[in-house]
Amino acid sequence: MSESDSAANLVGALLILLLFASFMYIVSTVSFPAGSFVHGELIPTNPPSGIGGAMSTFLWNFRGLDLLIQTIVLFATAVCCLAMLREEK
User: Fold this and answer.
1) Nearest Cα to 64, choosing from 29, 15, 31?
2) Is the C-alpha dihedral spanning 10, 4, 78, 33 positive or negative?
3) 73: closest CA among 52, 59, 81?
4) Ramachandran region of residue 80, left (φ > 0), alpha (ψ -120 to 50) or beta?
5) What is the pLDDT of residues 11-51, one digit of tens each?
6) Is the pTM of this model over 0.85?
7) Are the C-beta atoms of residues 39 and 45 closer than 8 Å to each other?
8) 3-class DSSP state for residue 62?
9) Any long-range contacts for 66-70 (C-beta under 8 Å, 24+ apart)?
10) Taken in order 44, 46, 48, 52, is the CA torsion positive or negative?
11) How far is the C-alpha of 69 from the C-alpha of 62, rounded, in Å?
12) Which of 1, 21, 44, 83 could form a disulfide with 5 if both were Cys (CB 3.0 to 4.6 A apart)?
């Protein structure tokens, strides 16, 4: 490897560590707005019976977790697309 390749690898590794540290800081300090919506106005969480109410309550209470997982999936998709489209030396 040449000196410019090792410098680029070092910068990339530092950038990844910085992004990971900022991601962990945001996740640990920011509370997701799980209680900011009134459940009854959008989707009734207490239907007459059955699994529908429990599932709806779970999805509305943990939608911050859902958004976090979607963000990770989109980031991984972008990284994989960039890896497939890079030039080979």
Assistant:
1) 31
2) positive
3) 81
4) alpha
5) 889 999 999 998 888 878 876 655 555 554 555 555 556 66
6) no
7) yes
8) coil
9) 67/32, 68/27
10) positive
11) 11
12) 1
